[in-house]
Write a structure and sequence with these properties.
The complex is a heterodimer of chains A (about 240) and B (about 250). In chain A, about 35% of the residues lie in helices and about 25% in strands. Chain A contains 9 helices and 9 strands. Chain A has a 6-stranded mixed beta sheet with strand order 5-6-7-3-8-9, sandwiched between helices. A 3-stranded antiparallel beta sheet of chain A has the order 2-1-4. In chain A, strand 6, helix 6 and strand 7 form a beta-alpha-beta unit. In chain A, helix 5 runs parallel beside helix 6 and helix 8 crosses helix 9. Chain B is an all-alpha fold. Chain B has 11 helices and no strands. Classes of the chains: A alpha/beta (about 240), B mainly alpha (about 250). Chains A and B meet through helix 2 and helix 3 of A and helix 1 and helix 5 of B.
Chain lengths: ~240, ~250
């Protein structure tokens, strides 16, 4: 079986408004999938519904062939998640945070290895709140990798980082991509999506606008780069 | 369970690092105990047939419970909800319930250490001798604890954010602490105030511990027993019903 994630007609209403409307997609193992869209498009709600944090009003999701609401424990032994703008306990040290998370899994990866892989080993005894933005985002990748996952979800990992830190996170993700890890990410940086993603899924107000590989989207929109293509796809009905 | 214990080791360290639990839960009851004893230890408590030390001992046992139930537990849970830490536990093989169980465990350990310190200092340094049964005292202590923790969890469930939680905790914690007789001897309150204070569940809890430690009924122990049991059941029930982890 080659499918990592499957969403069928996923719909989520909040307060009578359809935040996510009939989204369907299939993500193969080893693929980097980019969910793009403007602020308020429903990206985070899509991720949360996909993961079963929120109950879908219609449709279904499968992660590694399992229902994340019914087989939560099994699913999340193999899936690492970085939620958007999440933060950590006050006064917690890097090593403690890693140990705390490791204790939740049956067979976690050695977090010290992961820290040195991301050049964070010297921060092990440092308070998490004292880390710089870039270091902190790398730490959140480390945390997402602690379960030794088959899939990781990264929601706006690079938002708020400076250019240098962002590039260094991209390098990290490119290395992860080589390991055939399935990555589901959302981002506001088209350059990031262009470099990293095998498949793009563009949504607006909860509806799918278009999907495909980067070359497909460029060809369809007749643009030179993803940023222009993105604006072209989104702009279509904005000049009414 | 092993997950809860390994979490508790780290969360416990965090609790120690944030200091206020130790200060309010352990330092304060000891300070008040010494102060009360220095000022009026062997004097009769109001019109009662026992001394202020007799009265303070059993009352100060609950200060650790009060601090963890109405500050520690609800504030930590609300903080973790605000920071999406509870939500994050949902996308692990553990669950938010694990983290909450851990917080309750940390609170229990804090409260028990606090009560043990009060007991130790009272007996070893202040020459306190209890008249009642230790076994009954310990049982009543834990009954008061679970009743108060159920209320603390209910507060955590009902408060939408940290701002509201801070306000509600202050509004509950300080009256409970000062009016229940936990810190200021109940016996010296004017009778009007005693009536008002009796409405607080912790006042009843303190009365129960006093009855047991003095081996004589203070207030209505039977009534208190059923009251605390009802609070526990209703508190946990409502807390579970209204709980939101985001």
């Amino acid at each position: 079986m080659n499918t990592a994630i499957e969403a069928k007609q996923l719909t989520k209403e909040i307060g009578g408004k359809k935040i996510v409307n009939q989204l369907s997609f299939t993500i193969n193992k080893g693929e980097v999938f980019g969910l793009l869209g403007p602020n308020g498009a429903g990206k985070t709600t899509t991720i949360e519904t996909l993961l079963g944090i929120k109950r879908p009003d219609q449709g279904s999701t499968r992660i590694l062939g399992l229902d994340p609401r019914k087989q939560r424990r099994e699913v999340f032994e193999k899936v690492g998640v970085q939620l958007q703008s999440s933060s950590y306990q006050n006064n917690i040290r890097v090593g403690e945070l890693c140990r705390e998370l490791s204790s939740l899994y049956k067979q976690p990866r050695n977090y010290q290895e992961l820290l040195s892989l991301f050049k964070l080993e010297r921060f092990e005894t440092q308070l998490v709140e004292k880390l710089s933005g870039g270091e902190r985002q790398k730490l959140s990748i480390v945390l997402a990798l602690i379960p030794d996952p088959e899939i990781i979800f990264l929601d706006e990992l690079t938002t708020g980082l400076d250019t240098e830190a962002r590039r260094s996170v991209w390098q990290t993700l490119l290395k992860l991509k080589e390991t055939k890890l399935t990555i589901f990410l959302t981002t506001h940086y088209m350059e990031e999506a262009e470099i990293l993603c095998d498949h793009i899924y563009l949504i607006k107000r909860g509806n799918v606008v278009t999907e495909g590989t980067v070359p497909e989207l460029l060809a369809e929109s007749a643009q030179n780069n993803l940023e222009d293509a993105y604006l072209w796809f989104l702009g279509e009905d904005d000049y009414e | 369970m092993s997950k809860v214990i390994s979490l508790a080791k780290i969360e416990g360290k965090l609790a120690i690092r944030s200091i206020d639990g130790i200060l309010f839960g352990m330092g304060m009851p000891l300070g008040v105990l010494l102060l009360t004893t220095m000022i009026a230890g062997d004097k009769q408590a109001g019109n009662a047939s026992y001394t202020f030390l007799d009265s303070s001992f059993s009352s100060l046992l609950v200060v650790g419970i009060c601090a963890t139930a109405f500050m520690g537990i609800p504030l930590t849970i609300c903080d973790y909800r605000d920071k999406k830490i509870l939500k994050h536990f949902f996308v692990t093989p553990a669950s938010p319930a694990h983290l909450i169980a851990t917080q309750v465990l940390v609170a229990t350990v804090t409260a028990v250490i606090s009560a043990s310190l009060v007991t130790f200092v009272s007996i070893v340094f202040l020459g306190y001798r209890m008249r009642g049964s230790w076994l009954l005292l310990i049982a009543s202590y834990f009954l008061v604890m679970i009743a108060m923790y159920s209320l603390g969890l209910l507060i955590a469930s009902l408060c939408k954010n940290m701002k509201i939680a801070n306000l509600v905790c202050s509004l509950v914690y300080f009256p409970m602490l000062f009016l229940s007789g936990a810190v200021i001897p109940f016996e010296i309150f004017p009778s009007g105030m005693q009536k008002v204070a009796s409405v607080l569940p912790l006042t009843q809890g303190v009365q129960l511990l006093k009855s047991v430690s003095l081996n004589q009924p203070v207030g209505h122990p039977q009534f208190v027993l059923s009251l605390l049991s009802v609070i526990t059941i209703v508190g946990f029930g409502l807390a579970a019903k209204f709980f939101r982890w985001e």
